[in-house]
Amino acid sequence: ILLPIKGKVEFDDVVFEYETEERILDHINFKVNPGDTIALVGATGSGKTTIVNLISRFYDVKNGQIKIDGTDIKTVTLPSLREQMGIMLQDPFIFSGTIMDNIRYGRLDATDEEVIRAAKAVQAHDFIDDLEDGYFTEVNERGTRLSSGQRQLISFARALLADPKILILDEATSSIDTETELALQKGLESLLSGRTSFIIAHRLSTIKNATKIFYIENGRIIEKGTHNEL
Ligand code: ATP
Fold first, then answer.
1. What is the pTM of this model?
2. Which residues form the ABC transporter domain (predicted)?
3. Which ipTM was obtained for this model?
């Protein structure tokens, strides 16, 4: 099993192919320190999603190693790996129930107060508070009544509550109103603090705030640097 981690992530000469046997990742090397925020940028099909899918071990590498805190992730159990990882997709999963339940998902023992504290920390509280029944407002599976930005804020609160050491975020591309956009930007900052994050980044603010940007092209990292350097 993977013991509690600090969040160092290394790719050591990683090569990957899907079943099609076409080379998708070609000798990827990097070392990321605990707490770093990595923005992955690059054209569609360049391999960004594949990189994050390998970190959470949805697939195994063909050659090379992925190490977390020095341990090859191939040698640990999937549950022990995944429980230390938060994965946030572009369109967050909302199930039918209250907002409270939706945030609590993943940390079922959390009290109402803890849920509210998490929501406040990621700037989700204000919009929730404005809803008819606040945290006890019922939403259905498609998250009706919630905008795409609000669904993301809920997923931020959920992730903060679960408190994983490694966070993977596929940032949404959908258009979001200015107010929610600002909440997302600030909320993301508090969510990222103290954990290692890999963000498939679409917002300029995210890219600017990243510790490092990996520019991906054709399955290779062609540049690594900060926003100022690149
Ligand atoms: P996007 O910005 O569109 O999400 P991306 O940079 O995340 O793109 P990937 O999704 O990692 O790119 O895809 C990299 C390459 O792998 C693409 O050529 C894609 O067609 C291919 N690919 C992705 N998933 C599979 C799969 N399950 N089987 C075969 N090929 C795949």
1. 0.93
2. 9-230
3. 0.95
